[in-house]
Amino acid sequence: MPDLVIVHAPLYDAGVAPGHRFPMGKYTRLMELIKETGLGSKAHFHAPAPASAEWLSLAHDRTYVDQVIACRVPALIEREIGFQVDHRVSLRAQLATAGTVMAARLALSEGLACNTAGGSHHARHAQGAGFCTFNDVAVAALLLLADGEVNRVLVIDLDVHQGDGTAEICAGNPAIRTVSVHNEKNYPVRKQQSSIDIALPDGVRDEAYLETLSWLLPQTIDGFAPDLVFYNAGVDPHEHDRLGRLSLTDKGLKDRDRRVFDYYRSLGIPVASVLGGGYSRDADAVARRHLLTFEAALELV
């Protein structure tokens, strides 16, 4: 059996205090679980170097990029991000972005690759927001397009929150189609317009969610033939998520991931998966939900 391709850096965990609403420890715990469960013995690991300012500036205002790298982000923007942008948070954002670029390039050669971070979809052109410093998927999509590695990119975002930053950055670019399935009443209050938006009411459970997804998947490529799919596999639609308002079970999340991976891979379209959101006071619990994505991916390689 071929190895599952996983991109990871230990410094994805920026060491934010355990009581923070963003469970930073989930990145460390996820890798521990990958190894403890034996999945690691079936995986091939790659480690990114930090993304350059030039890469980051493809999606973000250069002044903001320089502020993050120098750890001089204005306090108002730091409040919108939800972290103080110190050296570790800055480095984490640069590494996670480069990790998504690496996962995308590996997906093009291997068919499927998973980043153990990424999915920072609230970061907009001018600044970060919502625990997102740099929009890694937007940077990766624009970089691969600029380098001629792909001609068209699809972003399918199944995090419980709308991918507003991705939609804003990629708006008007005919080479990128953005798709977001999210909870209608959740963050952000002001939604952006993705290429396709599916806004779900509170409390949607497995059966209804998966039925919607089965209908949606063919629509994502209707009249659009992507060379690469970025999949934001946020686990915050889970019924016990601290910030979610949907009601998917563990089984529902894993079935969701299986359907996404299987659909695009059956068509021969490479998929780069990013971690996305997942919130709990218990980092182990949320890491176990993220592990489901890697288990589902392993079934496809």
UniProtKB/TrEMBL annotation:
Belongs to the histone deacetylase family. SUPFAM superfamilies: Arginase/deacetylase. Gene3D superfamilies: Histone deacetylase domain. Pfam families: Hist_deacetyl. Keywords: Hydrolase. Residues 20-287 form the Histone deacetylase domain. It comes from Hoeflea algicola. It comes from the Bacteria. This is Histone deacetylase.
